[in-house]
Amino acid sequence: MSMQLHRIEELIELLTPVWKQQPELNLVEIIAQIADQAGFAKPMSELTDDILIYQLKMLSIGKDEMIPGIAKDCEDDFKSALLKARGIKVD
C-alpha cells in the first residue's frame, strides 16, 4: 500500500467518529473546526494532513495520556533512558 493511500485511510478513520458526533456539519466545516482547535490561524489552503491527523489523535486521547508517537520512546526511569540514549541495550 502506498504511503499516500495509508494517510488517506488514517485520516478518514480518525475523522469519521468526530464527524458522526456533528452530522449536521459538512466536511469543510468539520475540518475548519479541527483546524481551529489545533490553533491553526493560516489560510485553509495551507492546512496539512499532518496537522489534521495529529489534532484528531489528540482529540481521541485523555488529558493525562501520553502524546501519540512519544509513548514508544518513553522510559520509566532515568537510568534506563540514559543508557538507551548512549546506545546500551537495556532489558
From TrEMBL:
<dbReference type="Pfam" id="PF06288">
    <property type="entry name" value="DUF1040"/>
</dbReference>
<protein>
    <recommendedName>
        <fullName>DUF1040 domain-containing protein</fullName>
    </recommendedName>
</protein>
<dbReference type="InterPro" id="IPR038134">
    <property type="entry name" value="YihD_sf"/>
</dbReference>
<dbReference type="InterPro" id="IPR009383">
    <property type="entry name" value="DUF1040"/>
</dbReference>
